[in-house]
Amino acid sequence: MKNQTKKIAKRTDKFLEAEPITFGHWVALFLIALIVAIGLGGCNTIAGFGQDLQAVASGTQEYLTKDSSDNVNQRNDP
User: Fold this and answer.
1) Contact of 68 with 77, CB cutoff 8 Å
2) Does the global pTM surpass 0.70?
3) Given this model, what pLDDT does residue 59 score?
């Protein structure tokens, strides 16, 4: 039990001594945020993103329904 406590304490100390966020990290974070904003901007609004997501889900559902009904028909054919 003491070994595990020492390991946890060592990891905690190592985490607390971590390097601060550098300029490169901020640049990477900004680029990721920019890509997400541009991606969502293509939908005009967040509501548009919801509609796009719903359309993808319904298309997937239709595909899966068609696929499963084809499998059922194939099993029943003599």
Assistant:
1) no
2) no
3) 83
